[in-house]
Amino acid sequence: MNPRKLLWQFLLEHKGSYSLSLLSIIISEFITVQFPNLLGEFTDALQAGKMTNRLLLHYAILLALVGIAYVILYGIGQLWNGALGRQFEYLLRKRLFLHWELLSTTYFRHRSIGDLLNHAMTDVRQVREALSGGLNILTNAVFLLIATLYMTFRTVSVKLTLLSLIPLVFVPLFIVWFGPKVRIASRHVQEGLSDMAELTEESLAAIRLIKATGNEEIEEERFRKRVEEIVRRQMTMFTRSATFQSMIPLMGSIAFAIALLYGGWLALTRQIPLGSFVAFTLYLTMLIQPLQQIGFVINNFQRASASLLRLSILLGEKPEIQSPPEPQALEEVRGEIHVHLPAFQYADADEPTLYEIDFRLPAGRSLGIVGRTGSGKTTLVNLIPRIFDPPSGTVFLDGIDVRQLSLEALREAISYVPQDGFLFSTTIADNIRFGDSEASDEEVHAAARAAAIYEDVMDFPKGFETVIGERGVTLSGGQKQRTAIARALLKRAPVLILDDALSAVDMHTEKSILAELTERRRGQTNIIIAHRLSAVRHADHILVLDEGRVVEQGTHESLLAADGIYAQMYRLQEEEEAVG
Ligand SMILES: Nc1ncnc2c1ncn2[C@@H]1O[C@H](COP(=O)(O)OP(=O)(O)OP(=O)(O)O)[C@@H](O)[C@H]1O
Question: What are the transmembrane regions (predicted)?
Fold first, then answer.
């Protein structure tokens, strides 16, 4: 959903809370403007010689009450609004995360994930700040302004107020016009500094090469230019921020000069009481702040609006791989896989990665896939759960084109374990439970045992409750792979794909995991990609891939008898093991 729509919906849904929080801020402002007025009355009583001890106490208590009421009401408003802003931020983040989850692997191949995350999070924060802080400040400023003007008009003098206000109306205008210039200048300095850091890192990393080729002078020149550029940018920033910072007090001072001149004259000629004059000077200080704030908030809203636009564009990106509008039903999954693929080419590649792949894996059987690095093994298995999309009518699960199935049903039916065994930074138990969120502790432990990770986990300080990544707890490559296998075993999907997921475990462990796997997954479909042939030798069928083609296929025995690439690889690995 469009974030603008989401924002309106959120505001509407929470209109009760928003009205209450804004109302408490508004009331607090009308209370706080009583302060100068009370001081004015106090001055007048003093001047008229009417001050008694009782009256003194009366004013003191009144002023204290005004202060307390203001703090409480303003605090409630701030807190409420702040909480609502956070809620919206959470909603937006969740939306982004769900969206990213849907996007294809290709999408992320073309973008730096760090950059994407950074921008999106800054944008989300910007919107939240506008929504909570911005809205608060704006309400506060507008009503403080109205309340102050009302009080000065009523209790002091309309003419005096309007005259003194002339220089002050320039404050928000100036901030809206000049504020962004200061920000841009400071961003340029930041960019310059990070450019310089990059250059330094690059030069130091290549220091030997620079020395060997006698390029020191060229490098020095490059560095000098960058530094000069930074100094220039810094000077721009200092000039701008100095102008910015001095203009607002200047306008304030002019307003005060007018107030003193005209207000002083009014007081001298007794057209207004002395107390009103005192109150007015206090009101004037109260006016400067909201006017400044209005300027800042306008800038803030402009930035938030740009952020919302960027987020809309980001969230508007359509996932390339989607469920069909009317998916075919898949009830009892048997797990038969059929691939009839003339060719497969990645969107950004010049030529196909796979050619003429044809095989049928009956339900409940196991398939081994071997081949050199880059021969296309991962590409082939990625087409089954549609991590990359195969052409229509080329890959089938239980006789149905995978593109005709809903993504949920398809991915529910398949457990895919990638080579790197990605883990989330949560507990080991939770990581395994991603396979089946309902699983009991016993089931989690049994899956861990089958994946030969149980003993390792028990050696961690908190066993299965150990949080990965916390206090330096890191898992070795093999441990990660085994945890990921435990997760897949727990899922009990009709089809299991291990994509070189045993590469980082030793031969002995591999054997024990494979034995457990055969036992637990009897009657289910298993596809195992491996570099070590020992991992596939017991498979019902083996494909040997080379440069995107199936060059040999059969059982371990038949492939050995054929004495081709497979037999050659097998002999080589046997020799290596004998030596190693
Ligand atoms: N998303 C992609 N876009 C374009 N080309 C890709 C993509 N993924 C892989 N390739 C290319 O496809 C070819 C086959 O890669 P693939 O990962 O399928 O091989 P593999 O046999 O699994 O290799 P390994 O044993 O090293 O895992 C390689 O040349 C690779 O660079």
Answer: 20-36, 56-76, 135-153, 159-178, 242-265, 271-288
